[in-house]
Amino acid sequence: MVVREAGLIFRGFTILFSQYHQTGHGKIDKDLRSGLLSALIQFAKTTFEQNDVEYLEGKKFVIAFAQDTFISEKVRGPENLLAYAILDQEKNIDKTIQKIIHPVLKDLLKQFKKQFHGKNLSEISQLQSFKEILDKTFGLDVYTIDQKVKGVFL
Fold first, then answer.
1. What does DSSP assign to residue 21?
2. How distant, in Å, are the alpha carbons of 24, 93, 95, 123, 124 from that of 99?
3. Domain of 137: which CATH number?
4. pLDDT tens across 137-149, in order?
5. Domain total of the chain
6. Distance between CA atoms of residues 8 and 16, nearest Å
7. What are the residues whose beta carbons fall under 8 Å from the beta carbon of 70, sequence distance 6 or more?
8. pTM for the model
9. Full domain range(s) for residue 18
């Protein structure tokens, strides 16, 4: 399993992410992508009346999601907070997401809520400390087999 990218989306914007491997040759507008992902998830929830969209699957990549609500500063009600991970497509991806990725994403959301509950998330610089948690969480899963072997022998 190769994790290409992981992050958090709030109000349709990527507030925190780490990219471990390129997913394409061109530069991707992360705000445009996160707005689209947020809209797709909301559309699927509304249309199919499901509580949770766990992943979107393509030919090369899979985007796994976990959702929770978050109350930020000066807001009366809870708003959606998404954690996501972009993975390489592989056999039995459903099991991988169910048993590994989804629990990890839910735990990230729990930790994030605990650390930033009631704070103003528009000040992105305060979130950088959580980026280390994001990177530690995915640990060796972010490396390709070649990178793992190089790390062992060098």
1. S
2. 27, 10, 6, 34, 31
3. 3.30.450
4. 876 555 555 554 5
5. 1
6. 5
7. 10, 78, 79, 80, 81, 112, 113, 116, 117, 121
8. 0.82
9. 3-153
